[in-house]
Amino acid sequence: TKSDGNAMDLCFATHLDSRKVKHIKKNPEVHLTLGVDSMDEMGNYLQIQGKAKVSTDAKLKKEKWTDDLKNYFKGNEDPNYAIVKVEPYRIEYVTMEKTEVWEG
Q: pTM score > 0.85 for this model?
């Protein structure tokens, strides 16, 4: 992200009153899986393990704001608009042939 200079961090918007935010506050350990449409048809996919933090920092919210978020929030100052930042410590790229792992 631009705010802290760590290019590996993942950020996404969420509602501050969401179940996801409550879960992260109880346990910041998260796993993200990308590229799986169906458990029946597993192909190549990416698995990311990391620590998540929920932020309501005004600077970060403004930096991450896009017009696409207007469908969900009143603006970057909306009190229910928050950013989840995931700091990965393990990334796996899995194919049918091999698995590549990055650990930081």
A: no
